[in-house]
Amino acid sequence: MQLYFAPLEGIGGYVYRNAQADFFPKADKYFSPFISPGEKRRLTPRDRRDVAPEHNERIHLVPQILTNRAELFLETVRELQAFGYGEVNLNLGCPSRTVVAKGRGAGFLGRPEELERFLDEIFKNCDVRLSVKTRLGMESPEEFVRLLEIFNRFPMEELIIHPRVQTDYYKNVPNREMFSRALSRANTPVVYNGDIFSLSAFAEFHDEFPDVDTVMMGRGVLADPALFGEVRDRWNRKSPEYLNQNLPVGATQNLSIGQGEYRLTKERLLAFHDRLLSDYESVLFGEKTVLFKMKEIWYYMAHIFTNHEKYAKAIRKSQRLSGYREIVKRLFAEQKLQENDF
Length: 342
Known about the structure:
The protein contains 15 helices and nine strands. Strand 7 (159-161), helix 7 and strand 8 form a beta-alpha-beta unit. 40% of the residues are buried. The protein is of the alpha/beta class.
């Protein structure tokens, strides 16, 4: 089972990636928040910091590019190659209105002829591995029939499918019927992405698609940063190799990948939180900026605690780091972790 960390704009930067990988089982690949090359410069200073090799030493990072212009894509790839990258990802999934209005991200899916010319140009002129992260289309899942015909023309490293259309944003449920059709017709390895928020959600998906061995998760990992390890444990426990082991009664398989076991504990989660807070304080300017970043993470992570609502509300309203720290201290002291089924 290969597990990927989704490209989460605003949260999934190198500070979060490194903390998650140091305290919990890590992803097989981490995808960067998208790089949107401009006319004057292909990578912003923030982009450069995020993909800098010294900020990604212990992880496998795949930079993601968002553009509908082949020359900008190719020039950005060359800059990333100078950093040592041999694989990049094309974003055809971002549903943001501002992105879509410019014909980028999921908006590019509404221009199939133009997209085909773009892909032809970049695949002819790239000497790195290229993967694509896509939605099913703009308005109708049936649009993906034509899109998959286009994708099948090109030697992609992987096709990562989030089975929603652009107008869904993140509402409704992923269209697994269309994902199943794509799985049977794609000429390239297919990766699933969409609403794997918990161990039970993964189990349900795996029971439906037992042959899919690569899954991308994002928001579920923000809620439970140990999720990669928990999923691997379930996967391995169903494998013939695991079942044929002669383990002592009560023993469990050691699936350690990061620092320690895969299971989430309050002690490790608190240490992870403190590391994140410290690192953000060292790279961001001002209390409000740091607080904003931590509040984004708690929007997801609060749900792993019992009776979390009043603490989450207090965190959202906090104005100073001193008050924020006190709220977090009380949350960890007064509440328990829920079973991973939230």
